[in-house]
Amino acid sequence: MLSESGCRQRRAKLWARLPESITAAIVADPRHVSYLTNFRVQPLSFSRDERAILLLERDGGSADHDGAGKATLAADNFTAKSADGEAFYDSLLEVPWYDHVHSVTNRDHATFAALAKRGSIGGKTLLEAEWCPAMVGEVCRDSLKTDAELHFQCPATGERVSLGTLLRDLRRQKLPDEIECLNWCMRAGDAGHAKAFEVIRPGVTDLEVYNAVATACNEVAGRPGIVYGDWRSTRRGRGKAGGLPVGETLEQGDLFILDYSFVLHGYRSDFTNTYAVGEPSARQRELFDACHSALKAGEGVLKAGAKASAVYDACSGVLVDAGFGKLSHHAGHGLGMGHPEPPIEVPESRDELRENDVVTLEPGSYHDDIGGVRVEHNYRITATGYERLSNHRIALTR
Amino acid sequence: MLSESGCRQRRAKLWARLPESITAAIVADPRHVSYLTNFRVQPLSFSRDERAILLLERDGGSADHDGAGKATLAADNFTAKSADGEAFYDSLLEVPWYDHVHSVTNRDHATFAALAKRGSIGGKTLLEAEWCPAMVGEVCRDSLKTDAELHFQCPATGERVSLGTLLRDLRRQKLPDEIECLNWCMRAGDAGHAKAFEVIRPGVTDLEVYNAVATACNEVAGRPGIVYGDWRSTRRGRGKAGGLPVGETLEQGDLFILDYSFVLHGYRSDFTNTYAVGEPSARQRELFDACHSALKAGEGVLKAGAKASAVYDACSGVLVDAGFGKLSHHAGHGLGMGHPEPPIEVPESRDELRENDVVTLEPGSYHDDIGGVRVEHNYRITATGYERLSNHRIALTR
Lengths: 398, 398
Fold this sequence. Notes:
- The structure is a homodimer of 398-residue chains.
- Chain A has 398 residues and is of the alpha+beta class.
- Chain A has two domains: 4-170, Creatinase/prolidase N-terminal domain (Creatine Amidinohydrolase, Chain A, domain 1), CATH 3.40.350; 176-388, Creatine Amidinohydrolase (Alpha-Beta Complex), CATH 3.90.230.
- Helices cover 32% and strands 22% of the residues of chain A.
- The first copy, chain A, contains ten helices and 19 strands.
- The first copy, chain A, has helices at residues 4-17, 30-37, 77-80, 107-116, 134-144, 163-172, 176-199, 206-221, 282-299, 308-321; strands at 24-27, 53-57, 70-76, 91-95, 124-127, 147-149, 152-153, 160-161, 226-234, 255-264, 267-268, 271-276, 332-334, 341-345, 358-361, 364-367, 371-374, 377-381, 386-388.
- Chains A, B: One of its GO terms (molecular function) is hydrolase activity.
């Protein structure tokens, strides 16, 4: 869960990056509504596909001492009550879409009617035009009496920028409440990997592994989360495989790549180990050791200011030197409410690591005569290096 | 999964309801993109919060013999590859957002750039203005060279209607491929309830029940699904409780209301049984039997053309006659890609049941001196009555 002070800091950071001529903003990407207020529809609820709309106003009134402005959430009553945890805004505009007595109409229209209740605000309102529904434009014109803008001119660079792009940039550098949320996911993810050592063996199915790991994650999290990722065996003739389990039985000699995310409140862990199914071959051990060494080499580069391409080069170089060829995918990526997101650790990346970026390192190597291996940890980038957030054991066997 | 012929039939039904002056439509609610093409981002994937945009054109060219027109999907390359199953459209406009070699830019902008690749279509394009991002309006103006409309005038009634409202209305009457998808959820849901009889007893936690039931569902579905609903014990002093499990331990004498949904490909089951934790009291048995009788009374009303309010009246009447007071919530609701959705079975409902509506019946009664009971089945409405889709055992004890 995000904190009130974190949400207010993020809103203040947003306002600091917008030109003075913008007096209001409407945010509609559910990730960004959550980022700025902690309001998130619980995805494990009947309202899972529904949304709220966030109106931000620069002038927060006399109580606004931190530059966070004023935040107003608009939602239908059932979406409002499907919130995952306490949300932090100044006022809620709610429309009773459903009352257990009368028929219902279009639920989306209830949300827009809630926003319209705000009445005239005038001025210029920047829409998050990537997610703000076209119908919100009508609300701006007819009820808020404000000029809706789809872009703004960046005060620093003069470039034409969208609100969505600005928010994505702000999201990179996590505040402490976000790190806490990520650590909650990490602890659950660690428990899932510990469980994987117990359950992975010849004769079980990939779906049984999924269920056992998901159960372990939920138990440690203290609540159900969302579990996705790669849950597949690689083997002779199939060096690479990924995606959700399909009910396939694991066989002696397989290398099971378990690269999964556990999502709580929109944030996620994303780390990997490769498990030998039965006793691994000497060649499989060599491949595993090379990937693990590549991970260590990548760690040596992690630091605010480092080039993301240098992280890739470090990981890939180890694999090349070990005779397994260059790394065929990213060495890692940014992580948070999206996956993947910047910084992207690839050969031609123009990204640089920033303090409080959260990133993965995930070198892997895939061979039709051996099987595939990938190992991965998650890290918070610091001024001098990194703090490792995941704590699972990286090993082929128990 | 939806079928190609089902998707084409749904598109043809849509065009038949739109005035001739509308030559194109842009659909953006992910539920509706799936409804019309079977394209759905797998929610258990790293692309879980991403979207594609669907452009429909009335003139489907020479190959269009069924009135389905032409369907074009616009997506970034990673969203396109995160599809859950095969999708049915005439062409895909894809933009390579990420290639494992270069940095990435705003992923949403890649989707809009993909749509812009279609080039000029002219005419009038109806936007699904509830979900179409404002930035799609720019694409319409600058690239598609089409007039974007947020509403249309219904040819039959003359009313001003939105595309979202029309699609919600069309969604009520399910085609056979949708029923097949719902039945897949039902079979998994049945297995979860069977498992609940095994695991619910004093000393286990609600979270353990969740994990065991979810595991049973996933095994029968053959893949992981989304599990949500009510997973809580009621007891003396707490006649009503709901929502996700919180790790609370079940106690002798509790009534555990397990009202849950299993979601596959956006469709869901939603049925309930109430489980006695240990040996139930005589009063708990009476309450249970009254709710079960209320369910049977509701079944007697189900039929195309019946008033949804009459379903409520039938269920509530049984509870009143048994001395437990009137039903305090809906007797049930429509079910499919949303929850709840019309028809709404409540006292003041103006809805009528239609053939191929899929609905729940879920009478319940909650008392601080007894605990709470709710029982529920799911049904497809037919001309003469109903087909029951759920097959779990409704009983307090094994």
